[in-house]
UniProtKB/TrEMBL annotation:
Organism listed in the record: Rhodococcus maanshanensis
One MF term in the entry's GO annotations: oxidoreductase activity
Residues covered by the Alcohol dehydrogenase-like N-terminal domain: 23-135
Keyword Metal-binding: yes
Family that this chain belongs to: Belongs to the zinc-containing alcohol dehydrogenase family.
Protein name: Threonine dehydrogenase
Length: 386
């Protein structure tokens, strides 16, 4: 079969052996495969990422010298089952799958490991246990975005955003746009989106952002009506004194119980939930310095370089800093259902399609935020430009 191989930071279309499904696996014809920002990073930083992954407990991440078929955001049709499968769906059924697979050397990341070829190919093998049928006649284009939408859904859940809270999304690339879509799907009333790119700001509005900000001219931190926020440490201390003075005017009032009740109902000072979706050095520290007191910061962007933050800044503001990765099977299914039921529309993210011969051009085009957000690969397409 034809596939796009990545080695030594170069991409090339090659003829390789078609994969054979092993026990518990399913062979798919790839219908669409998304190009992810992780693919762009892995192409040029694979050894660095592999070292970090090994230190974290996974030693199967791709190395620069290996021939690797990238692609972990895909939709396909069932061609053949391997041994010991339940064969839950007939051949020809359109499915998506979590990009993890069990091989002889253990479990590997599909499309990010030499042991698990991905969807930049005519066919791909997936694990039946984490494969899901595409419902409601959903198009292959939209279904292929289940994976990035699941990443966003996991981030939103980890952010624990209340419907009346403000969510601020810093960076409106594909993952930021997906986070905006999922925030609105979860019922969050006020979503602020910030990006320097006019094109991305336009897409953010299409994904449902209530306020869209160019940080070169306006601050995202002053672009919404705050709830339960205080301006700084001095204001917080003054609020504490003022509150105690008012409470102590009420005879025999157990003021400590009033504090506990206020905290339980969310009436105590708190900041917005901030989603960092840029992944460049310095951005986290900028957010810590700028965000209101008691904000919650969810780091979704993947910074591939050593970064620097000032912990004392986060301490002084009592900022909650969370990092997220991936999703679980339930979140993956939920993302698929949200798309299939029309509650989330990933269409604004899709800005181009290429065939296998156009992947190199697509990677180059994705370097310009004014041109593209998400480019899909259609292995049967002759298109060489997105």
């Amino acid at each position: 079969m034809k596939a796009v191989l990545c080695a030594d930071a170069q991409l090339r279309v090659s003829e390789i052996s078609a994969p054979t499904p092993k026990a518990g696996q399913v062979l798919l014809d790839v219908l669409r495969c998304g190009i992810c920002g992780s693919d762009l990073h892995a192409r040029v930083h694979s050894d660095q990422v592999a070292d970090l992954a090994a230190e974290s407990g996974y030693d199967g991440f791709m190395r620069s010298h290996q021939d690797v078929v990238l692609g972990h955001e895909f939709c396909g049709e069932i061609v053949e089952y391997g041994p010991d499968c339940r064969k839950r769906w007939p051949v020809g059924t359109r499915v998506v799958a979590m990009p993890i697979i069990r091989q002889d050397s253990g479990v590997h990341l599909t499309g990010l490991s030499a042991a698990a070829p991905g969807g930049y190919a005519e066919q791909v093998v997936v694990q039946e246990a984490v494969t899901m049928a595409v419902p409601n006649g959903l198009s292959a284009e939209k279904a292929a975005l289940t994976e990035p939408m699941a990443v966003a859904w996991h981030a939103v859940r980890r952010g624990e955003v209340g419907k009346r809270q403000t969510a601020i999304v810093i960076g409106c690339g594909p993952i930021g746009l997906a986070v905006i879509s999922m925030l609105k799907a979860s019922g969050v009333r006020t979503v602020v989106a910030s990006d320097f790119s006019p094109r991305r700001r336009k897409l953010a509005a299409q994904c449902g952002a209530d306020v869209v900000v160019d940080p070169a001219t306006h601050s995202p931190w002053t672009s919404y009506t705050p709830r339960n926020e205080v301006g700084g440490v001095r204001d917080l201390l003054d609020l504490g004194i003022g509150t105690m003075e008012r409470l102590q005017k009420v005879p025999k009032l157990p003021w400590w119980q009033v504090f506990r009740l206020a905290d339980a109902v969310g009436a105590t000072p708190s900041g917005p939930v901030v989603f960092e979706c840029v992944g460049l050095p310095g951005v986290i520290d900028q957010i810590l310095a700028s965000a209101p007191l008691r904000s919650r910061v969810v780091v979704v962007g993947v910074c591939m370089e050593v970064d620097r933050i000032r912990p004392a800044m986060a301490i002084n503001k009592e900022v909650d800093l969370r990092f997220v990765l991936g999703y679980d099977p339930s979140e993956f299914r939920h993302a698929l259902r949200l798309i299939a039921d029309g509650k989330v529309d990933p269409s604004p993210l899709i800005t181009g399609t290429v065939g296998l011969a156009g992947v190199e051009n697509a990677f180059a085009a994705l370097g310009n935020p004014e041109e593209h957000a998400k480019i899909l690969i259609d292995p049967k397409s002759p298109a060489v430009a997105p």
